[in-house]
Amino acid sequence: MTGTTVFVSGANGYIAQHIVKQLLAKGYSVVGSVRSSSKGEELKNLVKSDKFSYEIVPALGDKGAFDNALKKHPEVTVFLHTASPVSFSVNDIEKDLLRPAIDGTVNALQAIKDHGPQIKKVVITSSAVANLGWDKYFDGNKIYTEEDWNPITYQESLENAASGYYGSKKFAELAALDFIEKEKPNFAVSFVNPVYVFGPQAYAIKDKAQLNLSAEVINGVAKLGKNDKIAPFGSHFVDVRDVARAHLVAFENEEAISKRLIVASSGFTLDSIAHIINEHFPNSTVPKGDLSRNPEISKTNIQKVDSSKSNKILGFDLIPLEKSVVDTVQQIYSV
């Protein structure tokens, strides 16, 4: 594996840090893009590897955002595009969520076409929200696969931040496919579409008050007091270490070329998470989860997902919920 240099956009993100960690462990050299030199230095100090360097890309959506970074690194042959906004507290849904995701993806692909002719493999971090129907499109009877698309329209994506996030993933993927069809670049693109991503941070947690969006699901339960109510919520989960590993498979395995890989381990409910925390951390203040509520919650919250095609390409067993929760909570509770 040594000798290959991989570019990781948004390298200081939750999933991206695990990708960087796994790439370095396998002997790859890594160039990461970050939004500022302070973020770059912070990541460099965490990574502690002479095979890691960073470039500053302040705004994904700006035309030519990645041009200089790629001009400086003709040694890069693989590009992993993980950078995309993930936030539900935005002022302008189109400006803060949709456009940066769509334009950032197209900018990355354009830069690779113009300034990275040696790059042959591109992997884009999408999300299963681009595959599954949510809210009014939730369908508990349908079996969703890699071929499915969330029916949400661009106009509906502007209605609220959650819809904006769903739309940002769907329309960024479609923009990438449109680019490939029109531009006929000499690189292949694969997509990694994870469900809710749980699991520990790749390196030490600096601020436990607010973790990233999906890791915050477990953090939210871990912070509950004995008399707090557990919300009747559930969905599908996958461990962040498996999502990172899927990105490596997506460019290492020829079978993954041009595929959308749904990465999903199993269903979860907040009651299941609370139950696991109680089993393993008896001194916690978390209320005991009521597992008898799970079937009812599943009916209205959890879609049926068949990711067997993706699992075959991935070729590894996915981390179960219990291990993912325990490893996450250990990190949250540790001083």
What keyword list fits this structure?
single chain; 335 residues; alpha/beta; Rossmann fold; three-stranded mixed sheet; 12 helices; 12 strands; 41% helix; NAD(P)_dehydrat-like; oxidoreductase; NAD-dependent epimerase/dehydratase domain-containing protein; Epimerase_deHydtase
Written account of the structure:
This protein has one domain: Rossmann fold. It is 41% helix and 16% strand. The model has no long low-confidence stretch (mean pLDDT 93). The protein is globular and about 55 Å long. The two termini are 37 Å apart. The protein has twelve helices and twelve strands. The strands form three sheets. It has a seven-stranded parallel sheet, with helices on both faces. A three-stranded mixed sheet has the order 8-9-11. A two-stranded parallel sheet has the order 6-12. Helix 7 (215-222) links the parallel strand 8 (196-198) and strand 9 (234-239). It is an alpha/beta fold and 335 residues long.
What percent of residues adopt helix (DSSP H or I)?
Answer: 40-55%
Question: How many helical stretches?
Answer: 12
Number of domains: 1
Query: Structural class from helices and strands?
Result: alpha/beta
- Strand content is 15-25%
The main sheet comes to: 7 strands, parallel
Q: What is the CATH T-level topology? A: Rossmann fold
User: Would you report the number of β strands?
Assistant: 12
CATH architecture call: 3-Layer(aba) Sandwich
Q: What is the typical, i.e. mean, pLDDT?
A: 93
Detail the poorly predicted runs: none
- For the record, give the distance between the C-alpha atoms at the N and C termini, rounded to a whole number: 37 Å
Family: Belongs to the NAD(P)-dependent epimerase/dehydratase family. Dihydroflavonol-4-reductase subfamily.
Organism: Spathaspora passalidarum (strain NRRL Y-27907 / 11-Y1)
Protein name: NAD-dependent epimerase/dehydratase domain-containing protein
Keywords: Oxidoreductase
